[in-house]
Amino acid sequence: MIKYLTTIWETVSTMLTGMGVTWRHMLAIRRDNVTLQYPEERWPRPERDIGFDHNKYNVIRSRLHVDIDDCIGCLKCERACPVDCIKIDTVKVPNRGEDIPNIRHKGITSFGTRKAMVVTRFDIDMTECCYCNLCVYPCPEECIYMTGGPNAEKHDIDYEFSEYDRNDLIYRFAKKVSGEDLENATTKPQGVEG
Amino acid sequence: MTVDQLIDWFPISATWPGLTFLLAVLICAVPVFLFIAVYALVVIYGELKISSFMQDKVGPMGQGVGLHAWRWGLLQPIADALKLILKEDIIPAAADKKLFILAPFIVFIGAFIAFSALPFSQTLIIADMNIGVFYILAVSSLGVIGLIMAGWSSNNKWSLYGAMRSAAQIISYEIPVALSIIAVIMLTSTMSMQGIIQYQSGLIWGFLPNWLIFNNPFTFVAFFIFFISGIAECNRTPFDIPEAESELVAGAFTEYSGMRYAFFFLSEYANMFVVAGVAATAFLGGWQSPIPGLFNSPAWGLWWFMSKTMFLIFVMIWFRWTFPRLRVDQLMSVCWKGFTPIALVNIFGVGIWYLTLG
Amino acid sequence: MGVVQGDQMVLNIGPQHPSTHGVLRLKVATDGEIVSDIVPVIGYLHRCFEKHCENSTYEQVIPFTDRCDYIASMNNNFGYVVAMEDLMEIKVPERVEYIRVIMAELNRIASHLLALGVYGLDVGAFTPFLYMFRDRERILDIFELTCGARLLYNYMWVGGVSHDLPVGFVETVYNFLDYFEPKVQEYNDILTYNKIFIERTADVGVLLPEVAISFGVSGPNLRGSGVKWDIRKEEPYSIYERFDFDVPIGQGLVGTTGDCWDRFHVRMLEMIESTKIIRQALKDIPTNGDVHQALPKKIRPPKGSIYRRTESPRGDLGYYIISDGSPQPYRLKMRSPAFTALSVLNEISRGWMLSDVIAVLGSLDIVLGEIDR
Lengths: 194, 358, 373
Description:
The structure holds 3 protein chains of 3 kinds. By secondary structure, chain A is α+β, with helices and mostly antiparallel strands. Chain A has helices at residues 2-27, 29-32, 76-80, 179-186, and strands spanning 64-66, 86-92, 117-125, 144-146, 170-172. Chain A folds into 2 domains: 2-32; 64-186, Alpha-Beta Plaits. In chain B, 66% of the residues lie in helices and 1% in strands. Chain B: It is an enzyme of class 1 (oxidoreductase).
């Protein structure tokens, strides 16, 4: 009988305790509310300064970006990718480090490296990307990064990217040039040799 | 205003009694149906908001223009209802079609016809029967037939489980509900809803309104037994084992979609109102004002009845968003080992109290 | 009159079911509500983790370990890098060790919060789930602050960590701990000591210590059965021997030792122990040091093999790595604690009711990503 009554008492008291918790939360909703009204309010991105350049580095692993003018076509990122979502094709240039205006090729990177390759294809399939950041570190020119990485001020952080067509999620960073232009630019001009 | 008054008021009542009766019933039924629909929208909105607030969220909030949920998400329940109405009505190929289609309506009818005996105010009652409470108890258990039909006809194992559970649960919980009401009837010596409320006028102990919950310790306990068993009859958490979404997917309603599913919901909310309404009538003085003698006009009566009922519905929502769910055998043991013996003791106690002090 | 014979009904719980914690399918033979046999059918989330690893370089394995136990990625990374560093005999800097411990323990809290919250959901309590997710979110914020990712971090590398801690990290974590510690009382109020919850979980699915050991169950499930076994204490890896913390075990406070409630409660206590470890680590962490100092130029371990186990939130997480001297592992085997936990399900929930099977399954805290790999 005593056990019966204590069970009832325990039930009532613990249930009242639980109801007290929800009651307090209900009344203090203005203080406790954690919801953000998404399209109007955005989650504040973490303030962070660390890494290569303390003022520039603000990391959120969002979509990948390539500064193609800085890419020397070393394929290190392609090899680092665990899911093979980066595809790079390159063609040798005739004169290392020279600009080729008609295919908008810049000869020298912002780090001062003289480029030996024209990157004719730099495709990143963001549907396959696993956001592991492994391609970012080997890059000698720091030209591939998750937006929000180094040079963050150039690109807004956006973690909302949706497309109607799956093909639109294959990002093609290489400059669009016709095959003819490319051929003309990358073969050594006739009659100059010697 | 009751059905009888309506019938008397019709000039043709003497010549075509059947026709006038039908007319009168229709005139009463349509507003009740509309009331249930509007009330359900309000309570769904309330449930969304209350649960969100308890969980540190803000709930539905529409801030844009157009088809957003307007300010504070006020249009959210309407959007929900619209969605349910417009959705495809799927009947499984292997289902027993007739029963499958019939089941939601039977469940709804059980809740719907109970409204005819609820005293909304001094004058606003559809039929003040001399067996009002008894009638409500009887018809509100009609829903279980619908639930079993739904579960059986769906030809789905989850539905079958849900149906069997709900059958056991609702039939068991009828008993403590009835027993706790008996304690009330013993004091009031009437089963008419208006009669029970009229018994509760005046003051008790000089300062408390003479509501039955304050009348004596036994009715105080009876109120809680009635209310909690009533929650079990509406299949609300912590007694929602027929639905039990983490175990039985959606229980008896697994195969339902669209409007039929909406009807189950509507009847759940209607059932909540019936339980809260009967609890308010039998224990909290119905339309009686908390300060006897003041604010006692029929209009105020409607206000008091609705506020008491809505408060009890709020408590049901509060329960739902606080507690875990009981297991099916524990549910039975709570009923048979907890509520039923206590309710029996209560009846005895009320009798003694009535003889010695009443 | 013939004898009435009840048939058994076979019920398929899952792969799409609200409370199978992923894509698990349980073939349950039931007699009414009573369950007489449970056959877990796994493999719906099989992603060839081990075969994949054989074709990836050692760095590329780390993102895959993230995706095994996606609730506790840091701990999965931790186990792998500890094994690799032992194989390659790398000594990592002091600061890295502390960072790793802080991250692993934060992730342990996050993982337990998810496990407890979802368990509440399994037994029908919705609100504690959202309270716990609210607090887990803060831990994920800390991770996002540190490495930019919220769920799959790829943070710990062989020989270091990918990023150094951001400025103000220590204060952020202190703030979180100050916020979090009182919240445990709230969870207790609303769920742990709720009578309905106790009724649902106490004495249900009792996992006896002998059974647990013979099935190879580990982690909180084993400790819930009253066995004091924690790799962090028994075989301290990294710098765990420096910290002062208890190993909570189930004592059968409200029922039998080893029931669902004990497993639940052990997780609750472990979160508090983790906060203790984090506080000690934050106090002692060296203020500067290069986290990339010990990174090997090329990860090319010598020929040989190694098995190292660490304490993930779900138990003994083992990595068996065979190296043939090439930059890719010859074989990589992961010993998953959730797999052994699932294997014990039939043993301990036979004869209980359907609702209890869900409760027992929830209390074992399985992650299907780790079981199927």
